[in-house]
Amino acid sequence: MLSRPMIVNSADYAFEMPTSMLEFDPAKPCQPSPFRHMILHYQLCVSLAKAISSVAANSLSTELAPRMRHAVKGWLACLPDEYAANNPDTKWDNEYDWVVFQHRYLQLIAYMSLFVPLKPYVTRSSERPLSALEDDLQRTGVQAALDLMKVSWDLFENVASTGAKFHYSVFCIFDTTTVLCSAFVHD
Fold first, then answer.
1. Domain that residue 96 falls in
2. Of these four, 3, 20, 117, 153, which has the most CB atoms within 10 Å of its CB?
3. pTM here?
């Protein structure tokens, strides 16, 4: 990434998975932790590191994008019910307002991870014909951008309604919009 050689192989980590036992309340054993989203985010990072560790540093993103997509989709499928991408369990939403933020944050991170390796295909010039794989990656990238815009706006509305400021909520909206505008210019 960033055209730099890999110095550390992130797939060969040797540290222990964090737990949320400090927040455990015996009176409410199923209560979600205010820090659970960070543990889940960490799991996604580890999955992505393993997925891309075998891709050569100088290889094309045609190898990288499908590996990252597979890792993200697998991670999304394993999320707890309250963070599920489709039909999340909302039983905690009213009592623990951070669960809504965590859900939207995790969706944003997932769609951002799907979109990043596809940016070069979305903004690719249409002067040269695309191969079937490149065309598929471009279509996938546009859909990932639209999905990212939706979850970015959802997170922004959640954060703005509480008066909080969170840089990802605004950054992803502008970054994705910029990439989509560039796609129009190059098409």
1. 10-186
2. 117
3. 0.82
- For residue 104, which of 54, 66, 145, 157 has the smallest C-alpha distance? 157
Q: Is the residue at 118 inside a domain?
A: yes
Please give the Cα distance from 48 to 65 (Å, whole number).
11
CA-nearest of 34, 39, 176 to 101 is 34
In sequence order, what DSSP letters do the residues of 89-137 get, joined into one string? --TTTTT-THHHHHHHHHHHHHHHHHHGGGHHHHS--SSSPPPHHHHHH
The values of phi and psi at residue 86, to 5°, are: -115, 130
The structural domain count of the chain equals 1
Residue 4 lies in a domain: no
Task: Report residue 6 as tokens.
Answer: 């890999």
Within a domain: 161: yes
Q: Which amino acid is at 173?
A: I
Q: Which of 52, 162, 160, 172 is nearest to 107 (CA)?
A: 172
pLDDT in tens, 87-128: 999 988 888 888 899 999 999 999 999 999 899 889 988 777
Residue positions counted in the chain: 187
Note whether residue 3 is domain-resident: no
